[in-house]
Amino acid sequence: MLPNILNLTLKELNTILTQKGYNSFRSVQIFTAIHAQGINNFQNISTIPLYLRENLANLYSISCLNIAQDLTSSDGTIKFNLETLDNHHIESIFIPNSSTNGRNTLCISSQIGCGMGCKFCATASLGLKRNLSTAEIISQVYLIQSYLDKLAQPLNIHNLVYMGMGEPLHNYFNVLQSLKILCCSYGKNISGKRITVSTSGIVKNIARLGMESNVNIAISLNAATDMIRSQIMPINNKWNLASLLEACKNFSQYSSRRVTFEYVLISNINDSPKDAILLSHLLKNIRCKINLIPFNPHSLSNFQRPFPNKIYNFQKSLLNKNLSVFIRNSRGSDIGAACGTLHLNP
User: Fold this and answer.
1) How many angstroms separate the Cα of 82 from the Cα of each of 28, 85, 114, 247?
2) Is residue 342 part of a domain?
3) pLDDT class of 100 with cuts at 50, 70, 90
4) Domain span at residue 192?
5) 107 has which bridge partners?
6) Residue 346 belongs to some domain of the structure
7) Beta bridge partners of 111
């Protein structure tokens, strides 16, 4: 199988082509055609000579995913089941009007399955099959944007979140490589402000992401004590809350971005008034915002969603401590696309 040209940053492509004797401007032409114009066949890159198109076709492939299935929710959310060349499947979620300003968000995957074992997440039951390549990560964006372009009323992807299947910072190199490509001014030129990378707490790579990119980070926190967090998130046994919060502070030192903390509210596990008080103390010295995510029930977990009054009281307690806190409404629940429910089944 030929290597995929989508794995290469502009700098890497330029190095390879100049070593083969081509002028450096050719790399810009090729990169722009593929990443900005969406051309997925070397023969269709009209800005380069025919012999170079043929040479590229002999050296590289350019496709790696196809849409096996798409399901549309009653709320407009679209879940894509994408098939890899080695017959694995991943899911990506398009969420229209995901914010008050009407912007659309694409939630993409970084691994096939996940090895973190979070007790509330359906993807955890799949285990980790393998990391996605850089090409497979960015192809989710390109393939789905192409799909959206062909709708009767075309839609655009405004925001990008690495919150699908897998732990992004467990696949650090390929995720970082994908960010470099997606943010490149000769490609999609997506602003880092519009991209958020989520992590369950791979502490060693949190500050590194702050140093090596200009994107936002979201921490899947979900508990205010080590005892509860270790029960629902095994990663806490390796990197506890103290080390996690220290990494978050270091991330903020390398950027002007505040940290987002995701907190899945699970009935009678982490949703008590005491939990809210402990959480406010835990985060009081960190520039952050908190997203409360009421647990989305699924067949692979016995956890339950808290009653609405308990959710609002939890938020109110945090607001009273002058914290920035929001309740995230579930989208795509009827097609298995809500947060924590990705499992390749509707």
Assistant:
1) 29, 10, 16, 34
2) no
3) low
4) 66-335
5) 93, 161
6) no
7) 131
User: Tokens 């992401």, residue?
Assistant: 209
**Final residue of a domain: which of 42, 59, 76?**
59
User: Does some domain include residue 45?
Assistant: yes
Any idea which residues carry the catalytic annotation?
91, 339
- Calpha distance 196→217 (Å, rounded): 5
The enclosing domain of 16 has a CATH number of: 1.10.150.530
Tell me, yes or no, whether 106 and 164 share the same domain. yes
Number of structural domains the chain divides into: 2
Which parts of the chain are beta strand (E)? Answer: 65-72, 78-84, 89-95, 105-107, 111-113, 128-131, 159-162, 195-199, 216-220, 259-265, 288-294, 325-327
Asked if 152 and 279 sit in the same domain, the reply is: yes
Structure tokens at 266: 């699970």
Spatial CA neighbour of 295 closest among 281, 313, 307 = 307
**Same domain flag for 104 and 172:** yes
Q: pLDDT at position 346, please?
A: 47
pLDDT at 344: 65
Q: What is the pLDDT of residues 288-335, one digit of tens each?
A: 999 999 999 999 999 999 999 999 999 999 999 999 999 998 899 999
Q: Do 145 and 74 fall within a single domain? A: yes
pLDDT tens digits for 178-203?
Answer: 999 999 999 999 999 999 999 999 99
Two tokens, residue 211: 């140093």
Residue count of the chain: 346
- Residue 111's nearest CA partner among 86, 139, 91, 81 is 91
DSSP per-residue letters across 58-76: HH-B---EEEEEEEE-TTS
Whole-angstrom distance, CA of residue 232 vs CA of residue 275: 15
Residue 306 within a domain: yes
Same-domain check for residues 164 and 228 = yes
Question: Minimal CA–CA distance to 288: which of 313, 265, 262, 311?
Answer: 262
Looking at residue 22, what DSSP letter applies? -
Q: Tell me which residue of 145, 108, 140, 111 sits closest to 128, measured CA to CA.
A: 111
